[in-house]
User: Fold this.
Amino acid sequence: MAELTEGSTEIEATPAEVMEVLMDFESYPTWAGIKRIEVMKRDSKGRGSEVSMEVSQMGFSASYTLSYRYKPKQGGMSWTTKEASGAVKDITGDYDLQGDGDTTKVTYRMSVEQAVPVPGFVKRQVERMVVNTALGGLKKRVESR
Assistant:
């Protein structure tokens, strides 16, 4: 059964600046804990709409292709699984951006249905790593630009 993992952070940047980093999928291996990534399809605005990824954390490996949708007015983006193999069956989630001048509150949510049984304490440790990487890596990447 999939469970929701969530976290938030404040980033010293506008929502447009945060979205610029989020849409730069090819840079994810440098900050997002992704081993390999390939943009398979782009939408009419040139944004990644189908993205294939490989991850490996704490002895678990997975490959998956996600379909992306973009919120209006630099409000973030969401994803659903198109296909998955390895340690996961299904991944859904989103980045929600709320701008306030030159600061953006970023909320990250992700739900993962695992393909292999994982003890609860290991699952919680992996979830914390994912949220910390998704938000901490994003914050560092955006604010260092």
Notes: The chain has a mean pLDDT of 92. The CA atoms of residues 52 and 65 lie 4 Å apart. The longest strand covers residues 88-100.
